[in-house]
Design goal:
Layout: E1 2-4, E2 11-13, E3 33-36, E4 39-40, H1 57-66
Antiparallel strand pairs: 1-2, 1-3, 3-4
Bound molecules: zinc ion.
Zinc ion binds near residues 5, 8 and 25.
Amino acid sequence: MEGICPKCSAHYYGWALNNPLEQRCEICGSLLEISEGKVCLKAYQSPFNYPKYEMTSNEIRELIMAN
Ligand SMILES: [Zn+2]
């Protein structure tokens, strides 16, 4: 398992990445892009699927406008 931070490009390795609670960048707090081999799962891409992710109202507005 490999996780890459889309913001700061930090790399994380290990099966702990299977745990949604481990799928955050320890440096900047972004959700990691998880890949296993050639398959990129991109799990929990939406902050609304991530129970511990707290958004500011500005972030929510930007997300809605982006969609
Ligand atoms: Zn990061």
